[in-house]
């Protein structure tokens, strides 16, 4: 599995200098979409679940910080 890892990393650079700079370039967008499309349904579910849990935890923390809810103790 890791036999040719160094050789593979030399052949395909992590950053292609021919790609235009900026986060809105089409190459970066298509690369991100390809990454998401290559995930299995189980992996997509785990990512969606983790995003949901992050939003709920941060939302509850914000409610506590802004004193919209109070802890019962």
Name a few traits of the molecule:
single chain; 73 residues; mainly alpha; 60% helix; 0% strand
**Beta-strand content estimate:** under 5%
Total E-strand runs = 0
Count the helices. How many? Answer: 3
Distance between the termini: 54 Å
Q: What Rg do the Cα atoms give?
A: 20 Å
What characterizes the major β-sheet?
none
Task: Briefly characterize the structure.
The chain has 73 residues and is mainly α.
Question: How would you describe this structure to a colleague?
Answer:
The chain has 73 residues and is an all-alpha fold. The protein has a domain at 41-73. The protein is built from three helices and no strands. It has helices at 5-11, 26-37, 41-65. It is elongated and about 60 Å long. The model has no long low-confidence stretch (mean pLDDT 81).
Give the SSE map:
Layout: H1 5-11, H2 26-37, H3 41-65
